[in-house]
Design goal:
heterodimer, A: 8-stranded mixed β-sheet, about 25% strand, B: mainly alpha
Chain lengths: ~260, ~375
């Protein structure tokens, strides 16, 4: 008994669609997590006002490494909240004092706030880091991103007139409205998943255009082969890009030639 | 941990292994370059058992060739055989990247390209991905790129099927990041050569006969590549990676391990990365068996797959490795850092072109 091409084609299409289904299901898991958090935060979003000297701060610890080619590549070691000021939260239910330890706090800076702290300002700054970055362990740097003493606050739990937080009921300090942030991430998940299914569907449909195993069909099969190899990194990218802002891996690079004097 | 650092630290590992040896444990911390396992060196290859690995790869290429050139061989049995051999090809990649098969470094590099075609990925990716990162687990505070926790479906079979989609990408992202800062021009050159050979030869075959290549070459290639990634979840999911002897699941059937070149013995491979694969069965019985939870010592991989992924819906509960080891008593084992250095040392030996491997002085950073 030899395999007919039709049987093998059906087998290959099956493999592509099973894996597409799993990647979509993985993405839907991320979507569900975001939606659940948005629902949990609903009705708790308020304004935070803290002392003027420092606002909630996210600490990002990175290792920078170079092979001496004028580029330093950064790799995140850990991200954690490092400063949670006491202050006042104006929430739908009234005004509350905040008393939260860093373990129960998530700090969500904007992309611009992080970029402003991670950017390299000059070649001198680059050269200063480049030498230790040549070492195997890399040059560790700690960035503290302060989101300001006026920001949004959501979540936590009330104990009398005090807003508290723990690991299960975290308090979110966010530069932007956290609901908008979460909706943006949900939309990204949905749009990418729709794109994945659309591309797979179109290429599958093309496989059946024209004579069986003809030119169009072969080109579509080649496209599906490429799709199969590429949809996996797309799925991982999606999952990593819709992490919550305090969990995001930032990485980044400095290129000496692009820096001023 | 870096290659250079690892090389420097290996002297410490060797010292420790020497003391272990004097305590009556002849295999402890075997030095991958100087140890000469039973069987001795032979013509062309470093160890007589390497002919089994060469036989596997030859059989795989013959099977692919038969299916490509002779339509009568395009049947379910031969396709299944090709898929099985493709998986074994990936096992050979693993062994070859720990300890090159041939005496000649140049031949070892050429053989890597041949192996790369077999699974459609550059064999050299194993150096950062397996030798340097996987052997660390998360001792450096970072997840292994192929950590079994990167999939989280409640239906465990979905985790098994989906795992390569995530772990493969995480691995290649990691390798790319590593290569950006690793000062081994030879590594990048070799990696690109393997990539070009694997995809180039596949493309040439496609030009001559597209459908046959797609169905009877690419399917086995990718099957093997994805299965070797899945091995990570079989070997570590539900194990206690923070423990000394219960971090891995072993598949200890004799026939299975003959075919698999002893890759079923994973605990001892982690703990004694310098041991030649032909010595793992004896070392497993001597060192691992008394100290491991019975659930991590499986006789049959097929039965384990059936029980864990077909007959059970959810993930297995994790083993408390420390409790098992506390009951088992004293442990004579080099530190985790020394063991990692041993794995890294083999990476130094195999990392790049002969001229670089011989005069290894540079360090290359792990992301």
């Amino acid at each position: 008994m030899t395999f007919e091409r039709e049987v093998m084609a059906a087998l290959c299409l099956g493999i592509v669609w099973v894996n597409t289904g799993l990647i979509v299901a993985h993405g839907l898991g991320d979507f569900r997590r975001l939606t659940q958090l948005r629902r949990r935060l609903a009705g708790t979003v308020g304004d935070f006002t803290g002392p003027p000297e420092a606002g909630p701060t996210l600490r990002i610890v990175q290792a920078g490494r170079t092979k001496g080619d004028g580029q330093i590549h950064f790799h995140d070691r850990r991200t954690e909240p490092c400063h949670v000021p006491s202050g006042l939260a104006t929430m739908p239910k009234g005004e509350f004092e905040i008393d939260a330890s860093p373990e129960g706090v998530w700090v969500w800076p904007t992309r611009e706030q992080v970029l402003a702290r991670t950017r390299c300002s000059s070649r001198e700054e680059f050269d200063q880091l480049a030498r230790p970055a040549l070492h195997a362990r890399g040059a560790e740097r700690t960035l503290e991103v302060d989101i300001g003493n006026r920001c949004k606050v959501a979540g936590g739990y009330l104990e009398g007139n005090v807003l508290r937080a723990d690991r299960e009921r975290p308090l979110v300090f966010s530069a932007d409205d956290p609901r908008a942030t979460l909706v943006g991430l949900e939309l990204r998940v949905v749009s990418v998943l729709l794109a994945i299914v659309t591309v797979a569907g179109l290429l599958t449909a093309l496989c059946f255009v024209g004579p069986a195993f003809g030119l169009v069909s072969a080109l579509a099969a080649l496209g599906l082969f490429g799709y199969f190899l590429l949809v996996q990194p797309v799925g991982v990218w999606l999952s990593e890009s819709v992490r919550l802002p305090h969990e995001l891996t930032r990485g980044g690079s400095w290129v000496r030639a692009r820096l001023p004097g | 941990m870096t290659l250079g650092e690892a090389a420097a630290r290996t002297s410490g590992a060797s010292a420790s292994s020497a003391s272990a040896s004097s305590a009556g444990d002849s295999s402890a911390g075997a030095n991958p370059t100087s140890a000469r396992p039973a069987g001795g060196e032979t013509w062309l290859v470093r160890h007589s058992t390497e002919w089994r690995q060469i036989g596997i790869v030859t059989a795989y290429w013959l099977t692919l060739s038969c299916m490509y050139w002779l339509p009568s061989y395009r049947n379910p049995a031969v396709l299944a055989l090709a898929c099985a051999l493709s998986f074994l090809n990936a096992v050979v990649i693993h062994n070859h990247l720990h300890r090159g098969i041939f005496h000649s470094k140049r031949l070892n590099l050429i053989f890597r390209s041949i192996l790369s075609f077999g699974n459609l990925y550059p064999a050299s990716a194993n150096i950062p991905a397996h030798n340097l990162v996987h052997h660390h687990f998360e001792d450096d505070g970072q997840w292994d790129w192929a950590d079994s926790r990167c999939v989280r479906f409640r239906w465990n079979l979905a985790n098994l099927v989906h795992f390569p989609n995530v772990a493969g990408t995480r691995t290649f992202n990691g390798v790319t990041a590593w290569a950006k800062t690793a000062r081994h021009e030879g590594f990048v050159r070799q990696y690109q050569t393997e990539l070009g050979f694997a995809f180039g030869l596949t493309a040439v075959l496609m030009i001559f006969d597209f459908w046959t290549t797609l169905f009877f070459v690419c399917v086995p290639q990718l099957y093997g590549a994805r299965c070797i990634l899945r091995i990570n979840i079989l070997q570590h999911d539900g194990a206690d990676i923070s423990s000394e002897w219960n971090h891995s699941r072993n598949f200890v059937g004799r026939a299975f391990n003959w075919i698999m070149c002893n890759n079923g013995y994973h605990t001892i491979h982690h703990n004694r990365a310098g041991l030649h694969w032909s010595e793992l069965d004896a070392a497993h019985r001597r060192e691992v068996a008394p100290r491991i939870a019975p659930s991590l010592d499986q006789r049959s991989m097929a039965l384990y797959l059936l029980r864990t992924y077909i007959l059970t819906w959810s993930r297995p509960r994790a083993v408390d490795g420390h409790a098992v080891e506390a009951r088992a008593g004293g442990i004579d084992l080099p530190s985790r850092a020394e063991r990692r250095a041993e794995a890294a040392r083999s990476a130094v030996q195999e990392v790049t072109a002969p001229e670089i491997a011989a005069g290894e002085t540079q360090s290359a950073a792990l992301p």
